[in-house]
Design brief:
Helices cover 38% and strands 19% of the residues. Strand 14 and strand 15 form a beta hairpin. It is α+β, with helices and mostly antiparallel strands. Helix 1 runs antiparallel to helix 2. The structure holds 2-(butylsulfanyl)adenosine.
C-alpha cells in the first residue's frame, strides 16, 4: 500500500511541475506579451488541476506556484530588509533650461557632447526591489528609507505582472527595481466597490471602510496589507525600470537592459524611448505634457537617464541622487469647478482657517472636494466668492489649493465671504491679533480646540502615543473621559475597554503606549503642549538651552528672547501660555504623573566647538547626518547649511557633492569623520 501512495505522490509531483511551468509560460504570454495562446477557460482548467493536486499533496506546493498568487497566510508585521545597494532618488528639473543644464553637466562629466539618453514616464506609485535566485522570485521589498525597506514578498507574489519564475536563461542572482502602481480605472472601480460595500455595512451597523484618496495611496496601502489575500484582490501592476545588481554581466546600455528584463518576463513600460539629443528628449516631454491624461495611470513627470550604463559609475551620485538621471516634473495640474461654500476649521491653537467646499473634481490624480484658502486676507486678495467657478490646483501630496476665481463666469449671484464673528465650535466671540493675519477663538475650553490639542499631544514628534489618533481623541473627549492632555494619564484599561469597538487587548495596548510616552525626550514634551508658534524645531532649541520644562515656563519673555532662534513673537507666546493658571495646572498634573520634564537629558557635552561654524556633507559611517549636527550643537558649535568664508570646517563623508568643491575653492578646511570625532572630544586645538 505504502508503495502505491509513494508512486501516486511521485506522479503528482511530475504533473504539478509540468502544470506550473505551463501556467507560468501562459502568464507570461498573457500579462507580459499580451499574446495569449490559450483561451481563459483552458487556463482555468490547468489552474484547477494544479490546485486539486496541491490540495491532495500540500507538501508539493512551492512558493512560486501560480496558485499562491491568491495570497498566503496573514503577516504579523513586516520584517526589515537591508538593500544590498541603496535605492536612490532623483534630482528634479522644472523647466527646459534646467533640463539643458543637467544635460550639459552630464556632457562635461563624460567628456562627450553626443550621448544618448532615454525617457520613461515617471509613475507616481511606490518603488520596490525584487530579488531572484536561480530564476525564482525570492524577495520583494519596499524602498523604505533607501537602505532598509519592508519585506512584502508574500504580497508582491500576488501581482500577476511580477513573474514568479523568469524566462530564458536568467543570471543566478539579480535584483530588479520598479514602480508598483494602481491604474486609474482600477482605482475608481475599487473605490466604487468599497462605497457599495459600505452601504451594506451601514445597514448592518458596521463601521465604513475608508476610501482611498488617490491611486498612489491606494497602491501603497494595498502593498502593505497584512493579509496577502487582500493585496491579491487589488488592481495593482508594476513596471520595472532598473537592474539593481546582478551576478554576472549586465547590458551596456539602459535601453538594452529594459529589453533584456522584458525578455525574462518583466513588465517594462512600452513608452520608454531613446533620444540622441536634449532637443529630442524635450520634444517627447512636451508631447507627454499634452498626452499624459490619456494614460490609465498617473504620471508626474518624465525620467531621463544617460543610456550608456558604463558612464554611470564615472558620473557617480550626489547625495542620494545619481548624476546620470533626472526627473522632469510637470507643473501642477489645474481644473475648474464650482466653489459651493466656504467653511472654517478650528485648529488646536484656536486659529480659524477658512477652506473651500467644492463640487468634487479629479485633479492631479485625486478627487478633490475641499481646498485650503489659507486666511481671510488671501480670500480678499484673490476675490474669491461663494458660488464662484474657481481654478483648483494640486501638486503631488500637497493640499489642494484654490488658485483664483474665473471672473468671466460670474453671474452676479456669488456672495462675498466674511469671517464668522463667533467660533463655529463653541460660539465664543472670535479675537483678532492686530499684528497677525490670524483670527482665533480665545476660549481655551472650546471643544474642537481641546480635541485637536489632544490629538496633537499624542501625535508623532510629540508624545507619540500609538492608538491615540483623531478618532480616539474625539471619542475620549466626547465620552467625558479626557478633558486635557494630563487627563490621558488618568485613563484605565476598563474605561477604554468599555468604549465601542474596543477590546481588552487593544485597551491594554493603548495604556501601555500612554505609559511609554512618559519617557519622551524634552523636545517632544515641549512640542506636545501645543503652544502657539512652538513647532518641533523651536522646541528643540528650547530643550537644548533650558534642559528642563519648568525652567522654560518660569522664564520671562525677555529671557526667552535671548535664546538664539527665539524671536519676540515666539517668546511672548510662550510666556503668555505659561502665565495661564489652567495651563500651569495641566503641567503640574503631567509632572505628578511622572512625565519626564528633562531629568533624562544628557549632561551638557561641553563647549569644545564654541565659536565654530561647521558644515557636514556626504554620508558618514558612524553617525547619521542628524546625529552629527546634533553633536555640533551640543558641543556649542553652529551648524551651517552652506559653505561661506565664515565656515570653519567642512566634515566630508562619502559621495560628497558640490559643497566639497566650494570649500576647496574658498579654502575652507575639510576634515574626515574620524577627525571630526576627535574635534568633538578635544576641540580645535587638538587637530
Ligand atoms: S529610476 C536613479 N525610473 O521616482 C534611480 N524611477 O524620485 C531612481 N520612479 O523612487 C529610480 N518611475 O519610485 C526611475 N522610470 C522610472 C521611474 C522612477 C517612477 C520613481 C521611483 C523613485 C522615484 C525617484
Amino acid at each position: 500500500m505504502a508503495d502505491v501512495a509513494a508512486l501516486d505522490q511521485y506522479a503528482a509531483r511530475l504533473r504539478s511541475e509540468e502544470l506550473r511551468s505551463q501556467l507560468n509560460y501562459h502568464n507570461y504570454r498573457y500579462y507580459q506579451l499580451d499574446q495569449p495562446e490559450i483561451a481563459d477557460a483552458e487556463y482555468d482548467e490547468l489552474m484547477n488541476e494544479l490546485r486539486a493536486i496541491e490540495t491532495r499533496f500540500p507538501e508539493l506546493i512551492t512558493p512560486d506556484s501560480p496558485t499562491q498568487r491568491t495570497g498566503a497566510a496573514p503577516l504579523a508585521a513586516f520584517e526589515t530588509v537591508e538593500h544590498r545597494l541603496p535605492l536612490f532618488s532623483l534630482s528634479n528639473c522644472f523647466s527646459e533650461e534646467e533640463l539643458r543644464a543637467w544635460h550639459r553637466r552630464a556632457a562635461e562629466r563624460i567628456e562627450r557632447e553626443d550621448f544618448a539618453i532615454t525617457s520613461e514616464p515617471k509613475i507616481d506609485g511606490l518603488a520596490i526591489a525584487l530579488v531572484y535566485e536561480g530564476g525564482r522570485f525570492v524577495q520583494g521589498a519596499t524602498r523604505g528609507d533607501g537602505r532598509h525597506g519592508e519585506n512584502v514578498t508574500a504580497n508582491l507574489r500576488t501581482l500577476k505582472t511580477i513573474p514568479l519564475v523568469l524566462q530564458g536563461h536568467p543570471p543566478e542572482r539579480l535584483e530588479v527595481r520598479g514602480e508598483v502602481f494602481m491604474p486609474k480605472s482600477g482605482f475608481e472601480a475599487m473605490n466604487n466597490e468599497i462605497a457599495e460595500t459600505n452601504q451594506a455595512r451601514e445597514r448592518e451597523g458596521k463601521k465604513p471602510l475608508p476610501l482611498y484618496s488617490n491611486p498612489r495611496n491606494a497602491a501603497a496601502g494595498s502593498v502593505r496589507q497584512k493579509d496577502p489575500s487582500v493585496t491579491a484582490g487589488r488592481p495593482l501592476a508594476i513596471f520595472v525600470y532598473q537592474l539593481g545588481w546582478v551576478d554576472g554581466a549586465r547590458p551596456e546600455s539602459h535601453h538594452e537592459t529594459l529589453a533584456w528584463l522584458h525578455g525574462m518576463g518583466f513588465n517594462v513600460n512600452p513608452e520608454a524611448r531613446r533620444h540622441d539629443s536634449a532637443d529630442d528628449a524635450l520634444q517627447r516631454i512636451a508631447w507627454w505634457g499634452k498626452e499624459r491624461e490619456r494614460l490609465d495611470y498617473d504620471i508626474d513627470g518624465v525620467v531621463l537617464k544617460v543610456d550608456d550604463t558604463r558612464d554611470w559609475d564615472r558620473m557617480g551620485v550626489a547625495g542620494r541622487e545619481p548624476r546620470w538621471a533626472t526627473a522632469f516634473k510637470f507643473p501642477p495640474q489645474q481644473r475648474t469647478t464650482k466653489l459651493l461654500r466656504i467653511e472654517v476649521n478650528v485648529g488646536r491653537t484656536g486659529v480659524l482657517t477658512p477652506y473651500a467646499v467644492l463640487d468634487p473634481v479629479f485633479v492631479g490624480g485625486a478627487r478633490v472636494g475641499m481646498a485650503t484658502l489659507h486666511n481671510e486676507q488671501d480670500i480678499r486678495r484673490k476675490d474669491i466668492r461663494e458660488g464662484d467657478t474657481v481654478v483648483v490646483q494640486r501638486a503631488g501630496e500637497v493640499i489642494p489649493q484654490v488658485v483664483a476665481p474665473v471672473l468671466s463666469l460670474r453671474t452676479g449671484a456669488e456672495v462675498e465671504w466674511e469671517m464668522p464673528a463667533r467660533c463655529p465650535s463653541c460660539d465664543a466671540e472670535v479675537a483678532r491679533d492686530p499684528e497677525e493675519v490670524a483670527v482665533y477663538c480665545p476660549n481655551t475650553a472650546c471643544p474642537v480646540q481641546r480635541v485637536r490639542l489632544l490629538e496633537h499631544f499624542a501625535s508623532r514628534g510629540a508624545m507619540d502615543i500609538e492608538g491615540l489618533g483623531e478618532k480616539m481623541a474625539y471619542t475620549l473627549f466626547r465620552e467625558g473621559l479626557v478633558g486635557d492632555a494630563a487627563g490621558i494619564y488618568d485613563l484605565t484599561v476598563d474605561q477604554i475597554a468599555a468604549l465601542e469597538r474596543m477590546a481588552t487587548k487593544s485597551a491594554e495596548n493603548l495604556i501601555a503606549g500612554i505609559e511609554k510616552s512618559k519617557a519622551r525626550p524634552l523636545t517632544n514634551v515641549i512640542f506636545a503642549l501645543g503652544i502657539r508658534h512652538v513647532g518641533y524645531e523651536t522646541a528643540r532649541v528650547l530643550a537644548t538651552h533650558f534642559r528642563n520644562l519648568e525652567a522654560i515656563l518660569d522664564a520671562p519673555a525677555e529671557a526667552l528672547q535671548e535664546v538664539e532662534g527665539i524671536g519676540p513673537v515666539v517668546a511672548k507666546s510662550i510666556a503668555d501660555w505659561a502665565a495661564s493658571p489652567g495651563n500651569r495646572e495641566v503641567v503640574a498634573r503631567l509632572k505628578a504623573h511622572g512625565v519626564d520634564f528633562g531629568g533624562g537629558m544628557p549632561e551638557p557635552a561641553g563647549d569644545q566647538l564654541a565659536g565654530l561654524t561647521i558644515v557636514v556633507t556626504g554620508r558618514l559611517e558612524q553617525l547619521s547626518r542628524q546625529e552629527a549636527e546634533d553633536r555640533i550643537r551640543e558641543h556649542g558649535g553652529k551648524v551651517g547649511s552652506s559653505i561661506s568664508k565664515s565656515t570653519n570646517f567642512l566634515v566630508v563623508g562619502a559621495e560628497a557633492g558640490t559643497k566639497l568643491a566650494k570649500a576647496e575653492q574658498l579654502g575652507v578646511r575639510t576634515i574626515d569623520e574620524d577627525t571630526f570625532l576627535r574635534l568633538l572630544k578635544d576641540g580645535p586645538a587638538a587637530l
